[in-house]
Specification:
280 residues, alpha/beta, seven-stranded mixed sheet, two-stranded antiparallel sheet, globular
Length: 280
């Protein structure tokens, strides 16, 4: 599947295909110097498979984590490109998650005022969010993404096979972002989540339901009406499902462990009062 993305400077394509990592030569111009940027958390096999399809590849691996999206690594990658004799006709390829994509994209945007940039996201979150839109940046002086640019890639290659090695926590992290965006911006996507999880065959409100029923045949309409009574309860259950499956694990894992302290002060301890003998 190819999804075209329009931008102010033209546009680019997002390719979604299983096994695309082994067919990059069909979609990308790799017949030149290629700086492949990845991190230590990405299986090295991914960058090797990209390297095998390039004419003159150079692989740089940065440490995993948000701390790598810094000015020092930005400078290091630019210095590496200068040392290797990169020109404006060469390119940068990111193989990894959002940190790798943001850093590599900003390097590509800055070197010689811009060279070609290809993004190959390998996490759910980067595939549904950070690889799309052309936002590239680094963290600086304690501020996240404060130095950067809008620099759309020449292409985004999404190979779902790269998700097989992803930890479950990272999968939940990316799916939570997809659900969030569906709730705020895409009713059809949210309906898709509902149908897949609860087999609901109806839209989210009565107005759209009438339009929906007009577009369907009588059999689909009967099936839709049979779900109306349960839909409200299912939506509530779905909300709890999202919270406990996606949000709560992220919050619990990010909570610092603190010892429980019970503060007892003199003011909290009430002194016993004597009972008058007349009331005995």
């Amino acid at each position: 599947m190819i999804i075209p993305v329009k931008t102010a400077t033209g546009g680019y394509d997002i390719l979604l295909k299983r096994g695309a990592l082994d067919e990059l030569g069909k979609y990308l111009d790799l017949n030149r110097r290629v700086l492949i940027v990845t991190d230590s958390g990405v299986p090295s096999d991914y960058s090797k498979r990209v390297m095998e399809q390039c004419k003159e590849p150079y692989v740089v691996t940065i440490p995993q984590g948000e701390a790598s999206k810094c000015f020092d690594n930005f400078k290091m990658l630019l210095s590496k490109m200068v040392e290797l004799g990169f020109t404006r006709s060469d390119c940068v390829v990111a193989v990894g998650g959002g940190v790798v994509g943001d850093l590599s994209g900003f390097v590509a945007a800055s070197f010689m005022r811009g060279v070609d940039f290809y993004n190959i996201p390998t996490t759910v979150l980067s595939q549904v969010d950070s690889s799309i839109g052309g936002k590239v940046a680094i963290d600086f002086n304690g501020y996240k993404n404060i130095v950067g640019a809008f620099y759309p890639p020449k292409a985004v290659i999404i190979d779902s096979d790269t998700l097989k090695t992803l930890p479950k926590r990272q999968i939940s992290n990316g799916l939570a972002e997809a659900v969030k965006m569906s709730l705020t911006s895409d009713k059809e996507l949210f309906s898709l989540f509902l149908r897949k999880l609860f087999r609901i065959v109806q839209p989210l409100n009565l107005k759209s339901e009438r339009k929906y029923n007009r577009r369907r045949n009588n059999r689909a309409t009967k099936r839709t009406s049979s779900c109306l009574v349960a839909s409200a309860y299912q939506r509530i259950a779905f909300g709890y499902f999202l919270f406990f499956i996606f949000i709560m694990p992220l919050r619990v894992n990010s909570m610092p462990l603190r010892p429980l302290r019970v503060g007892i002060t003199q003011s909290n301890i009430s002194t016993p009062r004597s009972i008058p003998s007349s009331k005995l």
